Amino acid sequence: MALPKQTEWKTLVKKFRALGWTGPIYGTKHPFMLKGKRKQRIPNPHDKQIGTQLMREILRQADISETEWTSAPE
Questions:
Q1: Cα(24)–Cα(44) distance, integer angstroms
Q2: How far apart are the C-alpha atoms of 60 and 46, rounded to whole Å?
């Protein structure tokens, strides 16, 4: 299943949490999510919509497949 053209910031956070990540944690230029020792920066919440290319890059950095992402509950 392909990624949608736009993903809402709230959906991004909910799906990361469903996949075992905690956060978002603030205190730097960008918030980030944590899973064990892994740290993944995410866009600031004022960017309400996240485009497909940026989502692919975030998922690549977090080592999450598109299939795993699309099957995660919101």
A1: 10
A2: 22
Amino acid at 70: T
Q: Beta 32-35 vs 38-41: how paired, if at all?
A: antiparallel
Whether the Cβ atoms of residue 25 and residue 32 lie closer than 8 Å to each other:
yes
Range 39-52 average pLDDT: 89
**Pair 6, 51: CB distance under 8 Å:** yes
Q: Which residues of 43-59 are buried (b: 16+ CB within 10 A; e: fewer)?
A: beeeeeebeeeebeebb
Q: What is the pTM of this model?
A: 0.88
The Cα–Cα gap between 55 and 67 comes to 13
